[in-house]
Amino acid sequence: MFFKNKFLNKLAIVCAGGVFTLVSGCSDPTPVPTTASGKTMGTFYFVETSEPFAGGSEALQNLCEQEYSRISSLISTFDKNAELYKLDDNKSTDPIEISAGLTNIIKGCLKQSKRIDFAMDVTVGPLVNLWGFGKDKRLSKEPDEQAILQAKKLVGPDKFSLSTDNNGNNFITKALPEVRIDLATVGEGLGADAVAEVLNAKGVKNYLSSVAGASRSAGTNPQGKPWRIGIEDPSTPDHKVFQAVCPLGMAMSTAGSYRNYFKDEQSGRIYSHAIDPKTGRPVDHTTMSVTVIAPTAFETDALDTGLLVMGADRALEWAEREGVAVYTIEMKDGKAVGRYSSAFKPYLECRK
Ligand code: ADP
Ligand code: MG
Fold first, then answer.
1. 299 alpha carbon to ligand 1 midpoint, in Å?
2. What is the pLDDT of residue 180?
3. For each successive 10 residues of the chain (352 residues), what is the average pLDDT?
4. How many CA atoms are closer than 13 Å to the CA of 124, on its beta-carbon side?
5. Protein residues whose CB sits closer than 6 Å to any atom of ligand 1
6. I need a surface site. Which of 137, 219, 223, 328 has the fewest CB within 10 A?
7. Residue 273: predicted pLDDT
């Protein structure tokens, strides 16, 4: 989630320094890395290059913030000037012209959605709002069935279409005026990738680029060892590391159902911000987090929320079938239990 207040994420950068959790064993002398960290659009970012970055921390920070602001100007649903904000506000069912940048993001999401049978669906916005996780206020009780049915009518892959005219201009056509596009779930991944791409173009070989729960890595850390990232323990509130992972030059992101939720005051039930587009309801199972490793943070971030919606059993079955690296954490008898697909194994062994 890129645009809302979120206290921390499912990741703790292990041995990277900066604002994230440090674990023991990080006392080797550090050969002048450059770091940049801070808050952007309601969440945290952390970027580190193993060698000195030209211009130092300030230059790295400027680069990051420029990239994040470029992405947010495309996909923010909180910033009135953002392209997506205006698109969501536009109630026309005629073709609406959209930029090539936004088109590519939506197409990229659709490609990942199809792989997991639309458990991640960019039209989920009306349900997200209804359940109090959007622009509107938090809820204190469940919305009524009628309202859920009403919002569900606006959700599904058939609720919009994309087209391109002879001049290469892109358009989106909504099936109903109230259809909205929600790209919040890929904001972090887009941010991590965008900074990584600029670093690649500048010839930086060793870096870690993270926005909240999404990271992209290259090369090694300042000690010349694989970058290590911690998946948080969902059973404790103190951001303890549950499992250390080495992304080995890949991207990684985690979707969690345990930090961003609301509690029904009467029943005491907890509702997660991951919404199942098929039921129209927040997921209600014991899977607390899903971590995905793939070449880009956009891909991992587009998949993690959907896999969380599917739950650990189905997510791991899918991952095994598709050869995707997935790690799940479930609560069993009050304890957090980790499971992973075969493709995840090398990232636990951390050997390069
Ligand atoms: P996490 O950090 O846990 O991955 P994100 O912030 O990346 O969470 O994504 C959660 C956000 O994604 C929600 O707040 C909502 O806006 C949106 N969302 C929730 N359920 C879905 C879904 N099934 N498909 C697409 N987007 C979703
Ligand atoms: Mg996500």
1. 14
2. 95
3. 37 40 44 91 92 96 97 94 97 98 98 98 94 76 91 97 97 97 94 98 98 96 96 88 97 86 75 91 90 98 97 97 97 93 96 71
4. 29
5. 1, 120-121, 124, 128, 133, 182, 184-185, 188, 213, 255-256, 273-275, 277, 304-306, 309
6. 137
7. 87
